[in-house]
Design a protein that fits this description.
By secondary structure, the protein is α/β, with parallel strands linked by helices. The chain contains 11 helices and 15 strands. The chain is about 30% helix and about 25% strand. It binds NADP nicotinamide-adenine-dinucleotide phosphate.
Length: about 325
């Protein structure tokens, strides 16, 4: 079977498409014929910063894949041959709190990833995918979809009438826009692009702000909410945006701290003064994934895919992510 591999710290240009041996699944494992991958900013960072991150080489990249189970190992009961499944970002996080062990089971980093025609996964580390989704759509769920779900539902405890602030129009933020709309919340979303803001409005955003032309967008958020601020902020920007996000969030509001797109430092005093709950989150558990899938099935939600690349074009997908022209997700067919 063919798989893309990171073989050096040479970045996207050094990725190799290699023929690898496949093996039978061992006890508690399944073999999945991958049909699609979705890429995340994290996958791009791992490819471009491999050695500093201590990723063992060679390494198959990507955490997010969807396909069919083609073989099961001894003792596997959760799934059967023929099931349509997606990978869990963390192979060992069925439920409960995150832990060092959970983090050591991340695909496409600590463990081999899924940018391959076949992958051996833990039977505990796959979920059945909603029937109305194709493989490309399902491949967007494990990281971006689940992170946005956890930010809004588990951390944000979103409810109808809440105001949700989203930064940019990448994978996580567009999922969060779709979920917030499902829950009857109203969304304020920022972007560097007016054209992307138009697309966000078409998806249900209540208010939009161009953060290039309105660099003090936190003031705009406070004004739009009548001086109150957002109830929930999904923070994907990191050090460069967090201070403004704190200012844009209401007293006793909640911020889900997710992203590292920008660098910078913050003064924590406003977090205390405003009694804000700031919760760091790292994707989510299989239980959360299954709950999210129930909501996706019940609502008929379809993930937003900006571009689909062929398996042979995988490096172009990472280049597209670096250029940040996308709205929602970038997907690679397998
Ligand atoms: N903690 C976790 O579990 C977890 C999970 C998933 C992702 N993440 C992190 O979350 C971040 C987003 O991930 P993603 O996969 O959604 O990335 P992505 O699809 O590549 O999204 C990138 C988008 O972010 C927006 N952006 C960039 N700089 C910005 C800024 N200064 N202010 C506002 N928006 C800005 C841009 O939107 P516009 O083009 O509209 O301006 C850009 O297109 C990354 O740092 C990623 O590593 C963390």
């Amino acid at each position: 079977m063919r798989a893309w591999q990171i073989v050096s710290d040479g970045g996207i240009d050094a990725l190799q498409l290699n023929a690898l041996e496949t093996r039978e699944p061992g006890p508690g494992e399944v073999r999945v014929r991958m049909r699609a991958n979705a890429i995340n900013y994290r996958d791009y960072m791992i490819i471009t910063d491999t050695v500093a991150r201590g990723v063992p080489l060679p390494r198959i990249p990507n955490s997010d894949g969807a396909g069919e189970v083609v073989a099961v190992g001894e003792g596997v009961r959760r799934v059967a041959v023929g099931d349509r499944v997606a990978s869990c970002f963390f192979q060992q996080w069925p439920a409960g709190e995150c832990s060092d062990e959970v983090m050591a089971s991340a695909l496409g980093g600590a463990r081999e990833g899924v940018l391959a025609e076949e992958a051996i996964l833990s039977a505990e580390g796959v979920v059945r995918i909603p029937e109305h989704l194709d493989f490309a759509e399902a491949a967007t769920l494990p990281c971006a979809g689940l992170t946005a779900w956890r930010a809004l539902v588990e951390v944000g405890r979103v409810k109808a009438g809440d105001t949700v602030l989203l930064l940019g129009t990448g994978g996580v933020s567009i999922f969060a826009l779709q979920y917030a709309t499902l829950f009857g919340a109203r969304v304020i979303i920022t972007s560097s692009s007016d054209a992307k803001l138009d697309r966000a409005r078409a998806l249900g955003a209540w208010q939009t702000i161009n953060y290039r032309t309105t660099p003090d967008w936190e003031r705009a958020v406070v004004e739009l909410t009548g001086g109150r601020g957002a109830d929930i902020t999904v923070e994907v920007g990191g050090g460069g945006t967090l201070q403004r996000s704190i200012e844009a969030t209401r007293v006793a509001g909640r911020i889900a701290l997710i992203g590292v797109l920008t660098g910078g430092t913050i003064d924590p005093v406003a977090i205390m003064r405003k009694s804000i709950t700031l919760q760091g989150i790292y994707v989510g558990s299989r239980r959360m994934f299954e709950e999210m899938n129930r909501a996706i099935t019940a609502s008929g939600l379809r993930p937003v895919i900006d571009r689909r690349f062929a398996f042979d074009e995988a490096p172009d997908a990472y280049r597209a992510m670096a250029q940040a022209g996308h709205f929602g997700k970038l997907v690679i067919g397998v």
